[in-house]
Specification:
- By secondary structure, this protein is of the alpha/beta class.
- The chain has 2 domains: 151 residues, Periplasmic binding protein-like II (D-Maltodextrin-Binding Protein, domain 2); 100 residues, D-Maltodextrin-Binding Protein, domain 2.
- It is 37% helix and 24% strand.
- The strands form 3 sheets. A 7-stranded mixed sheet has the order 1-3-2-4-11-5-12, sandwiched between helices.
- The longest helix has 29 residues.
- It starts with a helix and ends in a 5-residue tail after the last strand.
- Pfam families: Phosphonate-bd.
Length: 296
């Protein structure tokens, strides 16, 4: 019964949490007489690099949830010939804070962003700033994963376990959903032994080394080599994968196709099989380029 309630109430809890954060942001904005326009006002981490177009002062701003992804994008974007034709600088911001995503998306600060479709819709970012998808990741299910036993959705089970979670709060499988399970089971987070890691791969490494008893993540095809699929417990239904969006005030088809190629190359270079299946939203192998509607 508890298991069913967790799965049933998942969407409601996520929606309420997001709407609460969204309301707080709009309330703060309404109390301010000046609208924040410059990214210097956004508290976040960032990298900056210069393209080959030294005289060009335009900046391509990219926002991603984790630093590792910002690092992976830095060289491919800053040395890219198509990017250099349009921009003199590239700024890469990272951070999983929900308020930060609201800042970047609701005000259209980011030119390129990796985010969830439900976040984009809630902020009306697509209609307001004309964000359009360029690459999408496959849907997935969140699991508790152990290497010694099948995890139980039971309060007593978690109290004496070392639990691995992701340290950025917008990850659904690695942060949001497991904490929702703990809340539903009436478990105080302070009573749990939680170990945070920066990536899903780092969580798996800790689990394989015996540093933690279980993790919250998605199940990858290559997980079978180190773990048993008999020792996983689902904590959600199917979750819609994240998407890369480009702010397109103009029909900047060259940039859309180039970004699609760069992001796809980086995704496929990852060790996880999760990134093998990508949805490309732009047909770039023919002239003229065109946008591919979902389901077509």
């Amino acid at each position: 019964m508890i298991h069913n309630n967790i799965l049933t109430n998942k969407s409601t809890i996520v929606t309420l949490l997001f709407l609460s954060a969204l309301f707080s942001w709009f309330l703060g904005a309404s109390l301010s007489h000046s609208r924040i326009q410059d990214v210097e006002h956004v508290l976040t981490h960032s990298y900056q690099c210069q393209t080959a177009s030294i005289a060009n002062k335009s900046v391509l701003r990219v926002h991603v949830p984790i630093e590792a992804l910002a690092i992976a994008l830095k060289s491919p974007l800053c040395t890219n010939k198509v990017v250099a034709k349009q921009y003199g600088y590239v700024e890469l911001y990272w951070g999983g804070n929900l308020a930060e995503q609201i800042e970047f998306l609701a005000k259209g600060v980011a030119d390129v962003v990796l985010s969830k479709e439900n976040v984009m819709q809630a902020l009306m970012a697509e209609s307001t700033h004309n964000y359009r998808p360029i690459v999408g990741y496959q849907n997935y299910t969140a699991f508790f994963i152990s290497n010694k036993e099948k995890p139980k959705l039971d309060k007593a089970y978690f109290l004496d376990k070392r639990i691995g979670l992701l340290d950025y709060p917008t990850s659904r499988s690695g942060h949001i959903l497991p904490k929702q399970v703990f809340k539903t089971l009436d478990i105080d987070l302070d009573a749990l032994d939680i170990v945070y890691a920066s990536t899903h791969t780092a969580l798996r490494d800790k689990l394989a080394r015996g540093e933690i008893d279980l993790i919250s993540s998605y199940w990858r095809k290559d997980d079978q080599t180190r773990f048993s699929n008999n020792y996983i417990t689902p904590i959600s239904g199917e979750i819609v994968g994240s998407r890369w969006f480009l702010k397109m005030k103009d029909e900047n088809l060259d940039l859309a196709c180039e970004l699609q190629a760069v992001i796809s190359q980086i995704a496929k270079s990852q060790s996880s099989s999760y990134f093998e299946s990508l949805q490309h939203y732009w047909q770039c192998n023919s002239l003229p380029y065109y946008f591919v509607e979902e389901g077509v």
